[in-house]
Specification:
Blueprint: E1 4-9, E2 15-20, E3 39-44, H1 71-77, H2 82-88
Length: 90
């Protein structure tokens, strides 16, 4: 697989794009932390057909804390990031 872009939207509206991959010279990192209370999504970089990734959560994951973002909801909260939201939602 190839590198992966992780898009993180913070409650204050800030967008961070983390590039996961094995090429530090290209700005890629091997791992990243997505803070609680943020919205995130990911996709392989344009030059990659697929990416192989894993996700570890701490403390333990509980579905009661999980919320899948709805496109309309996210667009209302973060209209400045409509391109990213359209890219990562249906």
């Amino acid at each position: 697989g190839g590198p992966l872009d992780v898009y993180v939207i913070y409650p204050d509206g800030r967008l961070e794009i983390i590039q996961l991959g094995d090429n530090p010279d290209a700005g890629e990192v091997f791992q990243a932390v997505v803070p609680a209370g943020t919205w995130f999504g990911s996709k392989p970089k344009a030059e990659s057909a697929y990416s192989l990734v894993g996700c570890t959560v701490a403390p333990g994951f509980d579905f009661a804390d999980f919320e899948l973002g709805e496109r309309a909801q996210l667009l209302a909260l973060f209209p400045q990031h409509q391109d990213v939201i359209h890219l990562l939602t249906h």
